[in-house]
């Protein structure tokens, strides 16, 4: 098991290693006849692609997917849709030492425990962030379908290196029940406050200059999601989004609506009063993040995911040499993002699209 | 789908409604020959049971499970194990109005959207916290098996009504790699600092006096978990714990290790240096929460779950009347916990046991 | 895993042992609002119940299910529906010897290998035919829903003790495309030819008199099934029906349409010509059993399941004594059916209903 | 859902269409460190490949898989293993008419019902026998691992065009409990009786000369399978093998052990007496096909699958024109096997390997 997500209608298989021939995905359970706009998909994948700016690894990958099957004349066939991305720009460097001298904060050591030396350590192997390119193919296709159904999913950087974007609240929350068009789709560094964005970028540059890295929080909103989606107990919208979000490397936390903040509130503050808005049942606030009992209320689905700082840093770190039994100092060479948060934004949109489309396509 | 969790080796089916004949669970995939100590199980269930003290609903339920099958002479048969708890102390009050005047913060409204009036609204129906009694039967059995394997899972109240327990860090983190015996198992209000615990209880009493409620954070540690457990991508330990934790009513967030705090740290701070400790590979800190790449490292698994304040409060709230189309004021009568956090502690231990036992029993 | 069927929309959990407190089932994924007629369900269960006539075990069980949850005012709630049947008429006989002297043709020996002595051997435990009562609760509910959608599922005894019912072909096959009402629903010994039925019953009586048993074949037809149901590869209608039919004890083979007969035919004989019938596309013959590529064609779904003779026979048989290491003679006492085929007819209808409803309810 | 098999430890995703860029498979859940001998795998795939002799389509495909990931230095990494086979020798002929004039016995019509015209009809699309090449990659890898564990799976043609191979019984059945080496592995037309094989080939040639086709039966034996494999109810060995076997195009029936023959036997005949053989518990006969209660007994697992005659025949057939509403005559051009049974032999071995390895690798 493991790299296949089994949803209510969709099954998504992710495969590949960072330095293997390819990474890719198979999306099974798609209805026949969904249109796939290749240019739009390519534009979406480009937001995640590396090598474009100062905060991402200089490893250049075109990330142009090849569709092997399941797509004909721009429409899904209804049978499994498989697409791969060839790994071209791999370096032949010596990754064998990752097995004996695991990088702190990486999966090198745990992969060794799990796979007993047979894992592909190069570039993080199957644990590499590169695998999110495959997730984005699936998510990008589903985002197009959701958009056709007027469901819009957009994420932004809500916090980075301790700097909050402003305003804290997503505007979507205030216009609940209406047809919301978010303001940041498609940006490479999506924030509401240009000024705060500048400060964040400066913090990235500082960390990079120090041979270090920073983390942050991505906030995602799914607007115009129909109410009544989600199953109770283990398969609610929160369970599913969480299961998918933790598939994204470096995520260490998730919260919905008021989230951890709710823990400090009283019921009378946190409860969202029901009101009528243009004849529709809405809630005045959206502390629930659009989800009650695991089921969507029709209000925007809102959540935040916490990303740890990139574990690959140039600064010397302590690790163990598993051959010699000695503790050593490790300086990680290679091309790494000083902050992966900006490139993670479309990935979060992608997994959210997968979670929500899975229920929407069930047609209940 | 929905109320059946499909893990790597275990499948857990939860069924029942708050005011139906019973709630219960079927645990499938258990190996044959696991001992079940009924007294110990009963003691575990009692920690979750209502009616015992000032912070819980006065609804008294013995929560004595009846085992229907799968257990013989105190050992699991290997075939499905089913246990039910009869609902005895139900009130015949009028719950029909929950459909027309949904309670803010509850699943009344979303259940109506999802089930079109056929749901059982009484006491929250299938969305009631009462269902966690069934989860605790499964978790309690698995906790016993994990304990036999020297894996100990203990949770505490780490924050309540904005008051932090002290110390913030779980002691377990400092004694990594050793055989840790946590200090709070079995307590009804588990905190490290008696003083802080008193303050928390006072805050609950205050909220209750105000006809209001408070939320909090439960921190859970699984100690002595073998390294190498978990699958990549969608089925890592984080994905699974998160999927299960969000099955617990009122949870709105989860974070592993340094969690949301990691988002504010630099890589050099957050990365856990690998060190040798008594010949074993350990990490000096445990910001990863014992999980790297979704796979356990052998360090204690640590996470925190945020609980919103109980949505049922006596104070008047605004809601809609779906029959008249008017906005109305709602005062919730009935027996409710002013804070569900203390009773949620064993539930969090239960779902953690399910997540971890599922991998441990796979025997990899 | 094991005793939970995971379909496209439905999950069915079967639990219990022959001499445990109860057998039962949880059906998850049912839409809300399906009507359940209890009298009709009881009549259906009665067809399977033992103790009614000369070919079944004299063990009398009322098989009256108790619904624990998921049903309110005669309609499904949409949340898990659980029903149990208490085991009342169990004999306290010594079943321990089944572990040391396994009965030929039974699961006693393989259960010992699988569960290492912790299984419940009494009455076959979880492997008992009694578990099919639980399957029939689920199937009976779904048959009612299918009937409302004009889909009718009826099975008959097409062969018993080497005696064929006449005509061999199911009449349904000749009236394809129309609204077929089969002629044998609800009978306890459903055959087309009364004369052949008499011969079959005589054969059962003969076997019984000899302390022996006989087997047979059940043929099942699902009429008015919409075309286009089923998924390719592993989840086609044939795959699913087969997976479910082999859950019925004593089944050793299944064939669809012309089945094993097709192996002896030429393509020009076996291919079903497409024709128009009242404006609808039909096939002139139905050698495909209503399924092409795993997907329904709109023609009646037709299959046959082969049942081995009841393994429990009074005549002495050879077995091994696993304690002494000696080969011994075994005479099985107790109450057993000389032929389980008649009572298996409603069970086959039940599993067929589960397989087909699972796709029908997906609403594609 | 659909083209992903979810087993106990393995998940197999099959993708591709006959005339798409590629067919392929992802095998997830494989342990790390399994050796894959590429030459042996290639030899196995060659047995299924077309274009080699008089009974197969002249379409030549090298069927050389490209491994995209999950394999390093000849060993599985433990992460998803993906391999594809490019479709090179496709004809650009007009397949569009398959949608309007469906071929009898094919999935053209049902695919149209299911996918509403978006399916890829060329060469049968996702329903083509070509997809079995992908199944054989997975099966071939698992056969190697099973062989290392002394489990051997071999199939033969037991009946073709009404001609039985001799002897009917598989020799394996007589040497139960020992280490059996079957006699026909690797043959392109595996039969025991050379004479009967000649007659079968002649029957194929006759049918071909008539523009027609013939069917047959493949018998498969898995020898030295450990006892105790399989789960009760829905996930027994029979359920799983059946689910997988019906994924092979043209299969219309399956029977285990004495199968449909058991229906005509008395219990005293069909029951397999338990005996000691070299100190091990065996059965004297193997009418159960090595499976009791869905669980392996340690005796050889034996089953037979019925294949219908190839539906593609040159002889004119009747079909409907869905555009004009007229009935028409259809003559199928193109390259087709007059009998697919010989090439199906390795495919049956492959799916059997998948079913059995899935349980073996669970390590229970």
Summarize the structure.
The structure is a homotetramer of 364-residue chains. Chain A is of the alpha+beta class and 364 residues long.
**Largest sheet strand order of chain A:** 1-2-3-7-4
- Range of strand content of chain A: 15-25%
Beginning-to-end CA distance, first to last residue of chain A: 28 Å
- CATH topology name of chain A: Chorismate synthase, AroC fold
**Cα Rg of chain A:** 21 Å
Q: Outline of chain A, from the CA principal axes?
A: globular
Number of helices of chain A: 9
Describe it.
- 4 copies of one chain form a homotetramer.
- Chain A is α+β, with helices and mostly antiparallel strands.
- Chain A has helices at 38-48, 97-100, 108-115, 132-148, 194-209, 237-245, 259-262, 267-270, 341-360, and strands at 4-6, 11-16, 22-28, 66-69, 71-72, 75-76, 81-86, 152-160, 163-164, 216-223, 251-256, 274-277, 280-283, 291-292, 295-296, 301-307, 317-321, 326-330.
- In chain A, the strands form 6 sheets. In chain A, strands 1-2-3-7-4 form a 5-stranded antiparallel β-sheet, covered by helices on one side. Chain A has a 5-stranded antiparallel β-sheet with strand order 9-8-10-16-11.
- Chain A is globular and about 70 Å long.
- Residues 172-180 of chain A have low confidence and may be disordered.
- Chains C and D meet through β1, α3, α6, β11 and α7 of C and β1, α3, α6, β11 and α7 of D.
């Amino acid at each position: 098991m493991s790299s296949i997500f089994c949803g209510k209608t969709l099954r998504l298989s992710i495969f590949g290693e960072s330095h293997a021939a390819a990474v890719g995905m198979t999306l099974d359970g798609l209805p026949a006849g969904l249109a796939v706009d290749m240019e739009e998909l390519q534009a979406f994948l480009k937001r995640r692609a590396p090598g474009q700016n100062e905060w991402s690894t200089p490893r250049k990958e075109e990330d142009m997917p090849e569709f092997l099957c399941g797509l004909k004349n721009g429409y899904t066939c209804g049978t499994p849709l498989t697409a791969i991305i060839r790994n071209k720009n791999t370096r032949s460097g010596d990754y064998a030492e990752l097995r004996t001298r695991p990088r702190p904060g990486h999966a090198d050591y745990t992969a060794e425990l799990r796979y007993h030396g047979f894992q592909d350590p190069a570039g993080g192997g199957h644990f590499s962030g590169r695998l999110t390119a495959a997730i984005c193919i699936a998510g990008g296709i589903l985002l197009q379908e959701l958009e056709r159904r007027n469901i819009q999913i957009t994420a932004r950087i809500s916090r980075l290196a301790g700097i909050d974007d402003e305003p804290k609240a997503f505007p979507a929350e205030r216009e609940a029940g209406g047809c919301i068009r978010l303001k940041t789709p498609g940006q490479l560094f999506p924030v509401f406050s240009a000024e705060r964005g500048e400060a964040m970028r400066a913090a990235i540059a500082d960390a990079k200059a120090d041979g270090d890295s920073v983390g942050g929080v991505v906030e995602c909103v799914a607007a115009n999601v129909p109410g009544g989606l989600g199953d109770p107990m283990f398969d609610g919208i929160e369970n599913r989004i969480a299961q998918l979000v933790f598939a994204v490397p470096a995520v260490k936390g998730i919260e919905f609506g008021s989230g951890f903040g709710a823990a400090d509130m009283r019921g009378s503050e946190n409860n969202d009063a029901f009101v009528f808005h243009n004849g529709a049942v809405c809630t005045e606030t959206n502390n629930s993040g659009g989800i009650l009992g695991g089921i969507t209320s029709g209000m925007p689905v809102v959540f935040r995911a916490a990303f740890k700082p990139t574990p690959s840093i140039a600064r010397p770190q302590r690790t163990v040499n598993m051959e010699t039994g000695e503790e050593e100092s490790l300086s990680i060479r290679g091309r790494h993002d000083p902050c992966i948060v900006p490139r993670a934004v479309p990935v979060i949109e992608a997994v959210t699209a997968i979670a929500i489309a899975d229920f929407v396509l069930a047609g209940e």
